[in-house]
Amino acid sequence: MLFPTSEQSSQSELLQQLRKQLEYPRQLDVWSSSSSDPCYTQPTAVLAVTCEGSSITELKIVGDRITKLPNFSGNPIPNVTLSEAFVLDSFVTTLTRLTTLRVVILVSLGLWGPLPDKIHRLSSLEVLDLSSNFLSGSIPPKLSVMSKLHTVNLDSNYFNGSIPEWLDSFSNLTVLRLQGNQLKGSIPSSIGKAAMLTELALAGNRVSGDQEFTEG
């Protein structure tokens, strides 16, 4: 009989906490048993957990909540976003305790609120996809210290303010998708200094040169 390691138990507890914070979406019913090893989660189109050894390196959860409304104030909407009990800061805190994550894909889950700077604690992250949620406020500056990021997808949210000036600090960034937000102003010249950037999607914002285009 195989017994879970302390790392596996800890990861299972964190995934159970994430499941609770996401208000028990049906996609995560496979985690209903706290004793199950998350590394043996059967991958589907809406859920995948990838491990190296016993460490979780990829977490993909795709929900089915509608995501674009003509008027969204930033406050929760019953049966559309997660409830008013949801706290994005606490959710991200739990997520960052999965310290070996390299890929995070959390799509159409009804996440709402400003994305906290503490997301940068996922220092090994290479892919961040939070598209089709209800994230608002400014794009957090601390993203700029996540040196391993090569793909960032924040499409179809409600981020506002200007496109950050610090994009050239991403030495490995190849894909940046900000389509369908509420960004405004001009495209910063620093984007031209992001040497590895091959795809930049900006359509559906109020920025100068508002279009989706691909470089390279």
UniProtKB/TrEMBL annotation:
A Pfam family it matches: LRR_1
Which stretch is the leader sequence?
none
Q: Where in the cell is it found?
A: Cell envelope
Q: Which InterPro entries match?
A: Leu-rich_rpt, LRR_dom_sf, PGIP
Please report the name of this protein according to its UniProt entry: Uncharacterized protein
The organism encoding this protein is Eleusine coracana subsp. coracana
